């Protein structure tokens, strides 16, 4: 068969197939056209393809190219007819899709119990007029220690009790850069930052993460949260501190909570106390508190003869655990959703 004859039969095939698919107006006529032109056994395309064997070898390349063109034109005509008639794969409807089956329930996000506790604490303290304030988690020794009346040789500054950061350059030189910057070990840093920025009267709380290289156990974790409170004004007394903490505790844990101050020591408060709450028959230490030390007022440029104030710092995890009956702090950070979804 000459190349010309082969190309002519391809043209005729394309022309006939095009008009058959274009004029198909129901499933039956479409199916008839499909079998007649593209059918695996008796389809005309198959026949013409067979004839290519008779085209001289040196002209087979041209013949093959044309054959592919015609094949894809017929396929396009078939698909166009198919989608016009609303059937087949192009309809966009998956034939295995059953709209009557129940849907997949989406997984709804969940607020972590510590975040829920933080929101709750802010709400209670907000009702007593305490405004939320924030400070950085990476701190300098001035805000974490010096301004808080913690001198250079104080054990609280020991490298073993803090997460000091190595600067890139110092780390490269393998130098000990203790004292440069650290992850804050307490939220009391925010007291300093706020007093440096503002003048009294001040009434703030700060809720955030703090870090200590503590061995994890049921009540300790190396990263935990504190709620810092600071009130500075004129004639502030220890009775004001106790009232604020009592109102807080009864709002958070219930009317039957009792509060106890135990004498203690913090370099930045004088006098200082440990704050315990009695709840469900047990006394538990929730944090520390006291009247702001005159040296702290001096460090931020306040006159200690003019102003007075109190501060407290409570462990947020301990508060959350007490309220929800959680017995191991590590459960809060295990990432186990079966545990977290309970709250
Ligand atoms: C302080 O951090 C003082 N800054 C508190 C303070 C503020 C005193 C203002 C006076 C004025 P302390 O180190 O005791 O204090 O920690 C306070 C509370 O944090 C503890 O009572 C406890 O509830 C919690 N806490 C301490 N270490 C951990 C830990 N590793 N994991 C979980 N909670 C902790």
Automatic annotation (TrEMBL):
InterPro entries: aa-tRNA-synth_II, aa-tRNA-synth_II/BPL/LPL, Phe-tRNA-synth_IIc_asu, Phe-tRNA_ligase_II_N, Phe_tRNA_ligase_alpha1_bac, Phenylalanyl-tRNA_Synthase, tRNA-bd_arm
CDD domains for the chain: PheRS_alpha_core
Chain coiled-coil ranges: none
Domain Aminoacyl-transfer RNA synthetases class-II family profile: 114-319
Example of a GO biological process term: phenylalanyl-tRNA aminoacylation
Subcellular location: Cytoplasm
Domain of life: Bacteria
Chain residues that bind Mg(2+): 270
E.C. no: 6.1.1.20
Primary location class: cytoplasm
Cofactor(s) listed in the protein's UniProt record: Mg(2+)
UniProtKB keywords: Aminoacyl-tRNA synthetase, ATP-binding, Cytoplasm, Ligase, Magnesium, Metal-binding, Nucleotide-binding, Protein biosynthesis
Catalytic function, reaction form: tRNA(Phe) + L-phenylalanine + ATP = L-phenylalanyl-tRNA(Phe) + AMP + diphosphate + H(+)
A GO term from the CC aspect: cytoplasm
The protein's assembly and partners: Tetramer of two alpha and two beta subunits.
Listed HAMAP family: Phe_tRNA_synth_alpha1
Family note: Belongs to the class-II aminoacyl-tRNA synthetase family. Phe-tRNA synthetase alpha subunit type 1 subfamily.
NCBIfam families: pheS
PANTHER family the UniProt entry points to: PHENYLALANINE--TRNA LIGASE, MITOCHONDRIAL, PHENYLALANYL-TRNA SYNTHETASE
Stated name of the protein: Phenylalanine--tRNA ligase alpha subunit
Gene: pheS
């Amino acid at each position: 068969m000459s190349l010309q004859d082969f190309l002519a039969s391809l043209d005729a095939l394309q022309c006939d197939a095009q008009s058959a698919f274009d004029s198909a107006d129901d499933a039956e006529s479409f199916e008839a056209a499909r079998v007649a032109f593209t059918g695996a056994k008796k389809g005309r395309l198959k026949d013409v393809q067979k004839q290519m064997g008779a085209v001289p070898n040196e002209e087979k390349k041209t013949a093959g190219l044309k054959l592919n063109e015609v094949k894809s034109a017929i396929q396009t005509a078939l698909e166009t007819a198919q989608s016009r008639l609303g059937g087949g794969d192009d309809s966009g409807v998956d034939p295995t899709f059953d709209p009557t089956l129940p849907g997949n329930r989406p997984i709804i996000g969940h607020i972590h119990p510590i975040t829920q506790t933080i929101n709750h604490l802010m709400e209670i303290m907000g009702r007593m007029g305490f405004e939320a304030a924030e400070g950085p988690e990476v701190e300098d020794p001035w805000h974490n220690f010096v301004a808080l009346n913690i001198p250079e040789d104080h054990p609280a500054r020991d490298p073993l009790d803090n997460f000091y950061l190595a600067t890139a350059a110092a780390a490269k030189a393998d130098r000990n850069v203790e004292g440069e910057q650290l992850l804050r070990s307490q939220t009391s840093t925010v007291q300093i930052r706020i007093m440096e920025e503002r003048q009294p009267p001040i009434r703030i709380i700060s809720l955030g993460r703090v870090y200590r290289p503590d061995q994890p156990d049921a009540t300790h974790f190396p990263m935990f949260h504190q709620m810092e409170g600071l009130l500075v004004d004129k004639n502030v007394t220890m009775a004001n501190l106790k009232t604020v903490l009592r109102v807080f505790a009864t709002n958070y844990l219930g009317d039957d909570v009792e509060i106890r101050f135990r004498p203690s020591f913090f370099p930045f408060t004088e006098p200082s106390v440990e704050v315990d709450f009695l709840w469900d028959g047990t006394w538990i230490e929730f944090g520390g508190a006291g009247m702001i030390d005159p040296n702290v007022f001096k460090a931020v440029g306040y006159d200690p003869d003019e102003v007075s104030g109190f501060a407290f710092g409570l462990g947020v995890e301990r508060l959350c655990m007490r309220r929800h009956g959680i017995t191991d702090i590590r459960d809060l950070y295990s990432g186990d959703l079966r545990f977290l979804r309970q709250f």
